[in-house]
Amino acid sequence: MALAPQQLEEARSATRLEVREEEPTGYVLVTGSSRGIGRAIALRFASEGYAVAITYKSDQQKALETAERARRLGAADVVVLKMDVTSPESVQEAYRVLESRWPHLNVLINNAGILHVGGIEETSLEDWERVIKVNLTGVFIVTKTFLPMLRRAPWASIVNLASIAGQTGNIVASAAYAASKAGVIGLTRRLAVELAPYGIRVNAVAPSFVETDMVRSFIDTPEKRKRIEELHPLRMIIQPEDVAEAVYFLATPASRAITGQVLGVNAGRLTC
Ligand SMILES: NC(=O)c1ccc[n+]([C@@H]2O[C@H](COP(=O)([O-])OP(=O)(O)OC[C@H]3O[C@@H](n4cnc5c(N)ncnc54)[C@H](OP(=O)(O)O)[C@@H]3O)[C@@H](O)[C@H]2O)c1
User: What is the pTM (predicted TM-score) of this model?
Assistant: First the structure.
């Protein structure tokens, strides 16, 4: 039976709506998203209907918990990948899996990282190399590997997790950690220029203390918490969700004119 023009239009718009509901808002990969800041970022995107790839290095259980929460929040697709950002083979394998499943990648969040604390006299060459390898070389390896999928996307951006330690020496972290995060800032700025012709934006966030496993030992008593709060003009302990909100803004088209920038999420600790 032929449909009347009005019925036809109604049917068409219903189909379009249905498709729009099933289509992911976009495709996002968050490295080191089994817990902490990476988890909060993955969940922020999930709640907006993105297809989300969650990666972990060793804690599969935590990654599966993140995945389950992402699904409940409305992620269009959830993929859990074991990926060591220091291993080109491991990152390449993750690329193969995602490429066979998704048409492209809109957003890459380079979040995986490790903390290192201690003066140069206690820092061995092995410590130095390990920190630089995960925090800086890892960003290079993952970005270079996933570039073809980002280039295929109608819009794309990268957000790197730097740190206030990469902006000021006046912070509890080793020189290795500070240098790795300053390196991430340099990499961000250079890639912003280099990838602009492809329409890919590259930005970084630089948090101060954020309440995660990474800095748990600095805030595990009321006295220590108070000391950390007092370091920040806003007198607060920053939460992973605070960082996720900044990352979400920088990663998505709302910030389409912003690239090569470092957004401090530091409760006023660094105001320059
Ligand atoms: N927390 C802070 O105060 C703070 C402040 C400024 C910047 N940051 C930066 O924010 C990022 C996230 O920190 P966080 O506090 O959320 O850390 P976290 O709670 O310790 O979580 C680290 C995440 O990175 C993953 N990871 C570690 N090494 C990896 C490797 N070689 N390859 C792949 N994944 C790896 C971990 O996976 P597994 O669970 O499998 O081990 C985990 O998912 C880091 O880059 C950190 O430097 C943190």
Answer: 0.93
